[in-house]
């Protein structure tokens, strides 16, 4: 295992932070796999999972079983990790700009398209290699105007040339679920089965510039821009794994999830040993555009009537908001219905606060949409 430290520019004098990456295998040998956790720094479950996965990878390395280049970043956001306000972590939003740490990653397709137009490609392998080299060069040439911009740049430098990108997150309270590109539907379902994930939300471009889409979406945009490039296909399967809720941090859960990731990497061919059989499991593949975010119609005490994992019908009551000053009880309804896969844990809400996320089966006008 090789350990690299990547210094970020000082936001203020005397306060330099660094990103740390762990490298297994040899660069350029086999497919490249990139895994990171806690880009939203207050989402800790993935951090512990990668702690356990590193142990397994170190053991595989000692046995000579690493067949690919594997890069692991257990703490993808040292900036957010240091944001502690009144003894509570604020890891989702940058306190300087107010922006979500997992939004507004640069569009690499836009930055490399012109340089690629001047080149010719002999085959798909040559095309992928040249695209990746162009992405790395474009990232290196980007002007850095903030510490957060430098973090985004460095994360993409580590991941943009990977064949497989796994971004580990969690929600407030949630079931295991995953966001994936519909172009990789079959491959995503296999990953979900290994991870015991029963729900996969499919979206190619959710519109937020998230990290996973910054890795996978440029390949779509490039082939869409040039007809002759379509023959070369795509170059990166990038997914977001949502590892339950923020409080689901335990040795048992993390070691089990790490073991499942390890077995998937064996199946993928990145680690030696007998490839495991794909687990038999029913996995729902649902369009992200059929989802909804249920918001509080009033402020007050939140009482959830349905929980993550429950199916609800359109216009069904999923929660109540109680105003103890007027004794008003306001019902909260699902709009289109579907599977509740995440919900709020705090028992008090303000007007418009997010209460629950529901994944439906049929896209509808206004469906989808990103959480703040």
From TrEMBL:
Gene3D superfamilies: Zn peptidases. Keywords: Hydrolase, Metal-binding, Zinc. The keyword S-adenosyl-L-methionine does not apply. GO terms for molecular function: hydrolase activity, acting on ester bonds; metal ion binding. Pfam families: AstE_AspA_cat. Transmembrane segments: none annotated. Its cofactor is Zn(2+). Residues 30-267 form the Succinylglutamate desuccinylase/Aspartoacylase catalytic domain. It comes from the Bacteria. This is Succinylglutamate desuccinylase. It comes from Serratia oryzae.
């Amino acid at each position: 295992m090789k350990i690299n430290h990547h210094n970020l520019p000082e936001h203020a004098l005397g306060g330099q932070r660094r990103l740390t990456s762990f490298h297994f295998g040899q660069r350029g040998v086999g497919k490249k796999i990139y895994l990171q956790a806690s880009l939203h720094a207050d989402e800790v479950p993935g951090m512990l999972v990668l702690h356990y996965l590193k142990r397994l990878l170190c053991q595989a390395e000692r046995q000579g079983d690493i067949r690919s280049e594997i890069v692991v970043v257990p703490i993808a956001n040292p900036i957010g990790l240091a944001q502690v306000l009144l003894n509570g972590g604020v890891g989702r939003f940058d306190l300087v700009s107010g922006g979500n740490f997992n939004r507004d990653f640069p569009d690499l397709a836009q930055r490399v398209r012109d340089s690629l137009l001047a080149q010719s490609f002999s085959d798909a392998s040559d095309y992928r290699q040249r695209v990746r080299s162009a992405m790395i060069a474009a990232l290196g040439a980007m002007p850095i105007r903030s510490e957060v911009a430098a973090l985004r740049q460095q994360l993409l430098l580590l991941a943009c040339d990977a064949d497989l990108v796994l971004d580990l997150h969690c929600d407030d309270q949630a079931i295991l679920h995953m966001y994936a590109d519909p172009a990789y539907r079959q491959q995503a379902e296999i990953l979900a089965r290994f991870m015991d994930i029963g729900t996969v939300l499919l979206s190619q471009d959710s519109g937020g510039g998230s990290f996973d889409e910054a890795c996978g979406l440029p390949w779509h945009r490039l082939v869409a821009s040039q007809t002759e490039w379509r023959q070369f296909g795509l170059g990166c399967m990038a997914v977001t794994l949502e590892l339950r809720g923020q409080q689901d941090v335990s040795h048992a859960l993390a070691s089990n999830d790490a073991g499942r990731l390890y077995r998937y990497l064996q199946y993928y061919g990145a680690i030696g040993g007998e490839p495991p059989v794909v687990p038999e499991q029913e996995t729902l593949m649902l369009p992200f555009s059929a989802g909804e975010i249920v918001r509080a119609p009033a402020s007050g005490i939140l009482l959830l009537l349905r929980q993550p994992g429950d199916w609800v019908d359109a216009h069904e009551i999923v929660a109540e908001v109680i105003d103890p000053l007027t004794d008003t009880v306001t019902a909260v309804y699902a709009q289109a219905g579907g599977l509740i896969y995440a919900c709020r844990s705090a028992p008090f809400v303000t007007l418009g606060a997010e209460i629950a996320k529901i994944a439906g089966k049929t896209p509808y006008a206004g469906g989808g949409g990103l959480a703040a």
